[in-house]
Design a protein that fits this description.
2 copies of one chain form a homodimer. The first copy, chain A, is α+β, with helices and mostly antiparallel strands. Chain A has 7 helices and 21 strands. Chain A is 19% helix and 25% strand.
């Protein structure tokens, strides 16, 4: 089942989307918003699934689904917590700035609490008021959970995953070192993120296995391929582990979004991977590319994002059909 | 005007409360929940104020208001960001663990993104599943904002403050050093917070001046006074500055909660204050008391909270009448 929120007020309007993303059927008779559906999932889910089934067979009034009319599936949420599950990425970035990475990072997930009061839509511009902040994209996978009790096991946490989507976790790289030094975590360095036009239940995802989404995460910058890393590879912590980590000392309410962190694959030799142009799987953010450049040449060549740049994040199935629709955002000076 | 959310479902039921907290009138004909009222404040505020005025004069059907029937004013929120505006407190805690405090902490606010998907009610038990986590209270002042545009000045940010309340920012002290070392900020160390039964508009607060709430924040542990610090004293950053800090790189949506951090006053000699029993204003959290003990005797004597302990946080007006109602929570082993 695929769900989306058409832009409408602060929370959007819930629709069920056909598997090929061509059609939608309004679902607001079942629940006005995705958050409302998640709040009352046991009642809503069977109705939504029945509607999706009928939509697939053309047995219900339907409208053309246009990705640019979609907000993020949860236009605002009560929780957004982002892990850093591709520890390879963390090790690389630390290596480039000469900082040691504690061994515990391989066993104890990193996770930060993100702002969730308003997300960008998947086709919304990324506002940038100061280019010196070092604007970057981060292509990720994210899940939306149901209610998760405090202390849930990774297995129970995984069973609470309701929906899967893609994310552009917008980051202001040059504000990060200062915030890490302050010790209170990221805040100003993490403006609003964007999510894919469509969120998908795990059972509808061929690539969903053991809490990981297998498949190439296609990342483009200005029409050129930047990354093709497989989101199911080199993921040190699966979503069951990430959600359980988030729920270790407190329960999570329905509609909590938990992110994977920037997707990143090692190269065949275990070191940093090659750029796509050189036959590698490339990178899911500019920071990692800049890190590889720094390790190779002593300095980064690729600049951070500037006004006019366009980033695109998408994943396709075995027949090259889009699964979640595309996040496609242009940077806009404000 | 005073507003509260009676316990009812995930978001409570909005009511207007009389100034003396004796009565309430249902406000759900104006907006079903406080979040809904904040989402549409320009339309709702005059109606809510008219209802409050009528309630004060007994001209509307009214019911007895019982603080224990109230949820936190926003039982869940789209954002909870907590500052650390009483820099005195930060300096003290650092001093006790032999860590230097950067000079910039006096000019650049500390702020962390907290979890907001579910708050404890003001009379709810504080669940504790592992006493070794080092459970502590933190008595604070917090504001709820309207929409704040990115880059808002401190003056504009202050004008966007809709409501003021008290907070118990529950903390797990022994998890904090590990999370600070990881660099991603607090997460597991900050389980659900609780807020006062009633939220109050700034114009109804005699002690609200220049973005600070002046008045003694009464903190009790097991019926004994722990703190009487004045929330308007030694607050390095006012709420206009805190909200502007939060909005530096991104807009804040209506219903964002911004906290002051643990209220803390210096002693008359500029150093750490004395306990209440010794004639001082005491402390708004156990960590500060333990810090003072460590500085004086080389080790902390007061243990963190254990099952059965009761914490109480309240502020009274010049006639000793409660302003926000009391946060009163018992620690419960789970």
């Amino acid at each position: 089942m695929k769900l989306a929120s058409l832009k409408d007020g602060r929370d959007g309007r819930l629709v069920v989307v056909s598997d090929d993303l061509a059609w939608y059927a309004p679902a607001d008779a079942i629940a006005p918003t995705l958050q409302a559906a998640l709040d009352d999932w046991e009642r809503c889910e069977p109705h939504l699934r029945a509607l999706a089934e009928t939509l697939e067979h053309g047995g219900v009034p339907r409208e053309r689904f246009h990705e640019h009319e979609a907000a993020s599936p949860l236009p605002r949420a009560y929780q957004w917590a982002d892990g850093s599950a591709y520890v390879n990425h963390v090790a690389l970035v630390r290596q480039a700035r000469g900082a040691e990475m504690p061994e515990s990072f391989w066993t104890d997930p990193l996770m930060y609490q993100g702002g969730s009061d308003g997300f960008l839509g998947p086709r919304d511009a990324i506002p940038l008021s100061d280019p010196s902040w070092g604007l970057d994209l981060e292509a990720e996978v994210a899940v939306i959970t149901g209610d998760v009790p405090q202390g849930a096991s990774p297995e129970a946490a995984l069973a609470a995953v309701r929906l899967v989507m893609l994310c552009n976790d917008v980051s202001l790289r040059n504000l990060i070192p200062g915030e890490i030094a302050k010790g209170f975590g990221f805040f100003q360095a993490k403006p609003a993120s964007a999510f894919s036009p469509v969120a998908v239940t795990p059972d509808s995802l061929q690539g969903w296995r053991a809490g990981k989404l297998h498949g190439s995460l296609e990342v483009e910058l200005n029409g050129e391929p930047l990354g093709r890393a497989d989101a199911g590879v080199d993921m040190t912590f699966d979503f069951g582990q990430l959600v359980a980590h988030a729920a270790r000392t407190r329960s999570l309410a329905a509609g909590s979004i938990i992110g994977s962190g920037t997707v990143s694959n090692r190269g065949p030799d275990g070191g940093p991977g090659q750029p796509v142009a050189a036959g590698g799987v490339g990178y899911s953010c500019l920071a990692e590319l800049r890190t590889v450049e720094t390790l190779a040449d002593g300095q980064a060549r690729t600049p951070f994002l500037k006004a006019g740049d366009v980033v695109r994040i998408e994943m396709r199935d075995g027949r090259r059909h889009t699964i979640f629709g595309a996040i496609e955002q242009q940077v806009e000076a404000t």
